[in-house]
Write a structure and sequence with these properties.
Helix content is 21%, strand content 27%. With 240 residues, it is of the alpha+beta class. It is elongated, with a radius of gyration of 20 Å. The N and C termini lie far apart (44 Å). The model has no long low-confidence stretch (mean pLDDT 89).
Amino acid sequence: MSAGSGDRLQKVLARAGLGSRRSCEALIAAGRVTVNGAVAVLGARVDPEHDRIEVDGVPIGVRAGLVHYLLNKPRGVVTTAHDPQGRPTVVSLVPPEPRVHPVGRLDADTEGLLLLTNDGELTHRLTHPSFGVEKEYLAEVRGEPGRAALRRLREGVDLEDGRTSPAKVGRVAPNLLRITIHEGRNRQVRRMCEAVGHPVVRLVRTRIGPVTDRTLRPGRWRPLRQDEVRALERAIRGAD
Ligand code: URA
């Protein structure tokens, strides 16, 4: 760590998009920030070019000005910037600056992984209908789907907006399915399960392309690691 020179850590964190200076101070005070492997103290000075700065073990800063957050969206939180009904929004769960937007959407009732970023290019490609990275869900359903229901889900289900593309479907427990789709239609998994006679009771997104995290608790977010951003960029290369 650079002693006496360099910028104050909270300023560097804020510039990297981890929140206001005050919320970055709180991250440091909570012991969540390390510099070159050592837990950082408030007021430490760092050289972001040379020091290895991590928050919750994740290096900060992928590209100047661009931030990518992975949020574990709790149930009841809406995927918009503002909700007329006054429900909490996903944007209110991540730092206010720089402003980020959700990549795609999860229903208010759906839980799990959601990306938020100010990277317009990445968003455009990730949500482009002709492409679409894999999205994996755990769906707890009513009843116990049999082989015929699973086959229909895998082969494609006729919905009012057309037949769904083939999906990967595995049974984790009698009433729990792992469903992987690469389309992004409105309420798609819920409608697919409903169409085969097994409405969804609980839906959790567990993976977006190469990005997954079993340890991120509901309501918490973390910056994507550099290797995750690169893997996402690889996954969407060629979209458009
Ligand atoms: N499919 C759904 O039904 N809901 C979601 O939130 C995401 C996928």
